[in-house]
Amino acid sequence: MGSPIVLGIESSCDETGAGLVREGRLLGHAIASSMDEHARYGGVVPEIAARAHVHALRPVVRQALDNAGLTLSDIGAVAVTTGPGLSGALQVGLAGAKGIAYALDVPLYGVHHLAGHVAADTLEHGPLPNPSVVLIVSGGHTSLLLVRDLARNPIEHLGDTLDDAAGECFDKVARIFGLPYPGGPAIDRAAREGDHRAVAFPRPLPRSYNFSFAGLKTAAARWAEAHAGRGLPVNDGAASLQEAVVDVLTRKAVAACIEHGVGTLLVVGGVAANSRIRSLAEERCQASGIELRVPPPSLCTDNGAMIAAVGDLLVRTRAEPASLDLSIDPSAPLENAALHPVATGAVAA
Ligand code: KG4
Ligand code: ZN
Questions:
Q1: What is the pLDDT of residues 265-306, one digit of tens each?
Q2: Residues with CB under 6 A from ligand 1
Q3: Phi then psi dihedrals of residue 107, to 5 deg
Q4: Domain covering 5-119+300-316: architecture
Q5: Would the pTM count as exceeding 0.85?
């Protein structure tokens, strides 16, 4: 018998996702988003997100199964995001995952959300070269990682943001510029109509591979204030801000590959959907002979398939499943793909 089909459930923020993966292959997935309900508040409202997950979870799992042409009884293991994220939102996904795992009597795995972002790429481009350098850029996190075997080895942090995450910088500046929520895609769209040389925003380059975006956010706010009452050239501001963020991110990521002698760079997380980070990373990787891997935009932002992908890797390394009293860890640091102790090879074939 082959490897079991893994159901992955994601509910850490405003997307409810379910995905089905077997042996590295995506069989089907579905997503519901409460984004529109948060738009008028300018950011995710935790209580609204949690309630939306309660409504969406069952239909999303059903839709993922339908897309894959499968039924509930085909599921052989369940993986769920247990952190980091909003606690109420995480609780809903975990409760649902436990219910399914218990009812089907199949193993349950708690997964680190950011490891999910990394694994998303394997669904499109196959197994990760060992080692790979990974730039994770999401709404809450910005890290440069050295990843070996995602399911077996601890993840090494080469650098992290010292203050705001890249996506957070886009979201906050978009709000200052009067662009709609979520800010990242709005900045991306506005930037296409603007000149990225228009405003000389600072390139925050702390020593080492750490990042810092708070100063850039402040510079963008000052620039917007300076235009008060005179009409803000939003497109130029968006293009210049985007260029500053993307320049710093890609420059450091490529430098890390070169310094560590690593031939593959992955760019993952919601901000990896940005059109400029995709093109500049490609340009710079090509110039340095580095293979660039970026998931398709639909797998960059939060989804259940990426969590199923981690579950599938854990299953195939025979990692020990979690117990049914597994709980959430809203501020879990990224150390391992599984968010509970696993002894690999512990489960009999
Ligand atoms: O990974 P993700 O979906 O959720 C978190 O784990 O945080 O990332 C969401 C972040 C948000 O900050 C959003 O503005 C940003 O990704 N984002 C983008 C784009 N699409 C999403 N940022 C820039 N350009 C985009 N096209
Ligand atoms: Zn995410």
A1: 999 999 999 999 999 999 999 999 999 999 999 999 999 999
A2: 13, 138-140, 167, 170-171, 182-185, 187-188, 269-271, 273-274, 301-302
A3: -65, 150
A4: 2-Layer Sandwich (3.30)
A5: yes
User: For the chain, which ranges sit under pLDDT 50?
Assistant: 348-349
**Residue ranges covered by each domain of the chain:** 5-119+300-316, 129-294
Question: How many CB atoms are located within 10 Å of the residue 227 CB?
Answer: 12
For domain 129-294, give the CATH superfamily.
ATPase, nucleotide binding domain (3.30.420.40)
Within the chain, residue ranges assigned H as helices are: 35-39, 46-68, 87-104, 113-125, 166-176, 183-191, 214-226, 234-260, 275-288, 297-300, 305-316
Q: Which helix (H) or strand (E) holds 134?
A: strand 132-137
d(CA 307, CA 238): 32
Q: Which tokens is 61 given? A: 């799992």
Q: What number of other Cβ atoms are within 10 A of residue 289's Cβ?
A: 9
Q: Give the number of the ligand closest to the Cα of residue 299.
A: 1
* Tens-place pLDDT, residues 166-210: 999 999 999 999 999 889 999 999 999 999 999 999 987 877 999
